[in-house]
Amino acid sequence: MAATDPLPGSAPLARQARWLEAYRLGLRVAEQGTVVAVGDGIIWVRGLPSAAMDDLLALSEGSTALVFHLGRDLLGAILLKESPALSAGTVAHVSGLRLSIAVGDGLLGRVIDPLGAPLDGLAPPQATARGAIDAPSPPIVARDFVNEALYTGSKIVDSMIPIGKGQRQLLIGDNGLGKTAFALDTVINQKGKGVYCVYVIVGQKRSSVVSVIETLRNAGALAHSTVLVAEASTLPGLKYLAPFAGCAVAEAWMRQGRDTLVVYDDLSTHARTYRELSLLLRRPPGREAYPGDIFYLHSRLLERSTHLNAAQGGGSMTALPIIETELGEIATYIPTNLISITDGQIYFEQRLFAAGFLPAIDVTKSVSRIGGNAQDPAVKREAGRLKLDYLQFLELEIFTRFGARLEASMEAKIQRGRLLRDILKQDRLTPWAIEAQFLWMVAFNDGLLDGVATEALPALLAALPARAAAAGLTLDTARERWIQAATAWIQEAKG
């Protein structure tokens, strides 16, 4: 029998025996803190002088907390796991761990919480790697220009307010105007395009969460998506961490060279949660009682979305943060912060929604500052003419409300603008392929749709996606062939 194997055939016992042989008595010093108060998702701890911000605390009865405030005598921590036994007097230790979440392809098709625990009743996700929830954004030298389009499937966005891979595009508007529906359409439209999606839900009621999950599942989009949920009834600490956790999941795929899309639904609730935690932890309030670092908080999150250069793998993370306004007011604190952080905004207007124009996107208040650089040159040429015609129409239409008599050329422009507005209407959960969109753009710009009756337009457009797919054309195909396909489509629909 070998001297190093005192218990042959029993590897665990052999390891224990070697550990006992090497064990030496010695002095071990460990800090111990005591919980002095619990409530509203936070705890106050006395002791632990070496604890630092964002350290994880392990509590003796099984709860977990994150250090969030350092005081002279007490430290404040936000609870991430809370057991019913937690009370004043509970012993606390610094765990020595940093906050992270499981990442990788094992999360596709799953519903998880901000700590990576499953919420879909299945086994924990199989993941071999973990990503830091709060990580620095990529440096400038690791980034590349946004040069590839990310198609949302929305006719009005893909033509007039284009989004590029790696862009941060804000969805802003009052509650109930279709921001979530647009985000879901965008996720659904990535099916088969190699884009991995992360949908982050912050502070919504359970019925809304279930609706989002079922919508993605019924559309076949859950297979390329991960849904990260911190519902309304969960701890405020988890609601605070949810966007950062979703960003970490998408960031891991981006580092592998993949294209990703992350939706934050919504950052208004996230900001209110952060305000709640900050006030409970006695941080000085600022404008509208938000803490002064709320701008830094959201910029730190959104700066992680980018397009990496080839040396870093060439992956991208596109962010669609959702923000809620009240009565259309975009000049309040949080909306103006996010407008300044992002690369553009898509504005949803109550007046358009009430008039039945869906999606209720106001082109005059929406902008994409860098998306045009990523737009396909062929689409850009056609869309430029469309946007000019549409904006001119919106200006001229004002005169018709006063009964002003217009000359024939102006009347023709108004009729053409109304036709374009009808074309841009789109039902939810019906994303259009870019080839189908390009087909109607060519037809409209060449006047092939002029004179089409309003009542005949829905049937004409309904036949378009199938016709575009059957044509087998690409955006690189000569424009003359697109005109031929558009002519055949219109004649067949009328015939």
Helix and strand arrangement:
Layout: H1 11-22, E1 33-39, E2 42-46, E3 56-59, E4 64-70, E5 74-81, E6 91-94, E7 100-103, E8 111-112, E9 129-132, H2 155-160, E10 170-174, H3 179-189, E11 195-202, H4 206-218, E12 225-230, H5 236-255, E13 259-265, H6 267-280, H7 294-302, E14 316-325, H8 333-341, E15 344-348, H9 350-354, E16 367-368, H10 371-374, H11 377-400, H12 408-424, H13 434-445, H14 457-462, H15 464-471, H16 479-494
Helix pairs in contact: 5-6, 7-8, 11-12, 11-13, 13-15, 13-16
Structure description:
The chain is an alpha/beta fold. 38% of the residues lie in helices and 18% in strands. It contains 16 helices and 16 strands. Helix 5 packs across helix 6 (267-280) and helix 11 (377-400) crosses helix 13 (434-445). The model is unreliable at 1-7 (pLDDT under 50).
Quickly describe the structure.
This protein is elongated. It is of the alpha/beta class. The protein starts with 10 loop residues before the first helix and ends with a helix.
Ends distance: 93 Å
User: What's the helix count?
Assistant: 16
Compute the CA-based radius of gyration: 28 Å
Strands ordered across the widest β-sheet: 8-12-11-13-14-10-15-16
